[in-house]
Predict the structure.
Amino acid sequence: MRQIVPSASTSAILQPRAPRPSKNCKNKMQSQEVRKRQHDTTPKPSGNHGPDANLKLICQCSGNPTPILDHSSHIIGVAAGQDSEATWLGGLAKLTDRLEKARQECHSRGTHPFLSSSFSHGGGRTEPMNLNPPGNPNFHLVEELVGNPAMKRLMGQLSSIFSTWAPKLYDFYNRNINKFCLHSPELKRNWLGSVFAAVMFNLSPQTVCYPHKDFANLPFGWCSITTLGNFDPT
């Protein structure tokens, strides 16, 4: 798997300082800039993704974990690799086949089927609510996937990786998900061994996430992105 991580090197261009504008001129320039932004409807990419993004491409050719660092060498993620144990790989292969079949069974809108489970807030909800209530047309399908033995093992493994590489953040997740469930017993957790409040199964043959900002997520939080199937990641 290839991961893009920030490089430690930086560069700067020193230029002569321009004359400081007067207060009236500065206010006029700011007003013009505001009007320009209001009339500019061109989508703007989030973050710096161009040639000046100061990123370095790393090829992860083994199953060994590879931390992802920011410019201050803080760990902001990890490419965890995979367990090569034979029975585990066999379980993942069966799970992949089940998800392939679920794509045909899923009641979805649009061309990109997905399933969600556990609970979330936002999107019109006035309080945290279960994502897969009994009235959901995909209720039984989601319950089957959540109860799959290989899925349970996978989610427990992902939480263990999380606790190893970000123990303080893991504790924050664990404390708060327990508080939510104590306060609202009707909220249903997917797996007792997982600290993540929700899961989404993307069932498309290929799923690509464009740069975006999700205001329903914890800004400093982590999520577990898992790919299944037999493919060339390069």
Remarks:
- The beta strands are 2-6, 55-59, 66-69, 75-79, 114-120, 129-130, 198-202.
- Residues 6 and 51 are 12 Å apart (CA to CA).
